[in-house]
Amino acid sequence: MRTESIEIVLVNTTHPGNIGGVARAMKNMGLSRLCLVAPKQFPDPQAVWRAASAIDLLEQARVVSTLDEAVADSQFIVGTSARDRRIPWPLLDPRGCAARIGEHTDAGERVSILFGREDRGLTNDELKRCNLHLHIPSAPEYSSLNLAMAVQIVCYEVRMLAVADSLPAEADAQWDTPFATAANMERFYAHLEETLTDIEFLDPAAPRQLMPRLRRLYSRVRLDEMELNILRGILTATQQWVARAGSRAQPAKTDDGET
Ligand code: SAH
After folding, report:
1. CB 152 within 8 A of CB 198
2. Which residue intervals define the domain tRNA/rRNA methyltransferase SpoU type in the entry (predicted)?
């Protein structure tokens, strides 16, 4: 996810406070490019007030008079909508949409995400210009979120992907010991079965599901080589102890065979 390739486009926003709220939502989530298409009232002290520490985003915002200008350089356009429109269109929720946006930014493309007017949203014509529609699955009885809150949710999903990208591919990558190989796990299971038989916990004549269940237990944990060696050591010690106990229990032989 290349967040710097994403521009949030607000179309004909009425309330300057919402513009400030959007700037803050964006900056909190690591996005910086804001475009305002013919805002009703901007610049405005209410926008500054709601932006809090995101005034820089307001100052850098691109203010244009038409949607054409806003998306002229864009290669993938997402349109957000609070309700179903008549024309069926590829539609995703914010999470699915963030994944698609990530694919496009990773391919070096510029992406615009359009947000509509507080009272009427985006027009059908505007939505028809989009490659993909995004709907936040809100309650149908009241589906329309406040503009800045809708932006917050979309930017949060973008953020989650960006953060996931910056982590090592697998959390396991940072583990201090290599994970046990399949061959070593098989040796361990054979040793375990043998030991459980030695201590008479497992009856080879009626093993039931003991070994499959133990396999499932250990495979859930995913042992590393060190842990595996410790367990093998415990099994060996158990077997030695059983052998010693067994020899102690053996009747001591005397010359005439008497005990
Ligand atoms: N009354 C308008 C809603 C406008 S809300 C309508 O019914 O279309 C202002 C903007 O916030 C919307 O244009 C959209 O960009 C965004 N928004 C609000 N709720 C949303 C939702 N549930 N899903 C996606 N975007 C939403």
Report:
1. no
2. 6-156
* Ligand 1 center to 133 CA (angstroms): 12
182-249 belongs to CATH 1.10.8.590: yes
Are the C-beta atoms of residues 150 and 171 closer than 8 Å to each other?
A: no
- Transcribe 6-41 into DSSP letters: EEEEEES---HHHHHHHHHHHHHTT--EEEEES-SS
CA 205 – CA 223 distance, rounded (Å): 29
Of 81, 95, 126, 129, the residue with max ligand 1 atoms within 8 A of its CB, to mutate for a pocket test, comes to 81
Give per-residue pLDDT as tens, 70-92. 999 999 999 999 987 667 889 99
Same-fold call for 3-166 versus 182-249:
no
The model scores a pTM over 0.90: no
Complete DSSP assignment for 101-163: HHHHHHTT--EEEEE-BTTTBS-HHHHHT-SEEE-----GGG-PPPHHHHHHHHHHHHHHHHH
Domains of the chain, residue spans: 3-166, 182-249
**CATH architecture under which domain 3-166 falls:** 3-Layer(aba) Sandwich (3.40)
Check pocket membership of 92 for ligand 1, CB cut-off 6 A. no
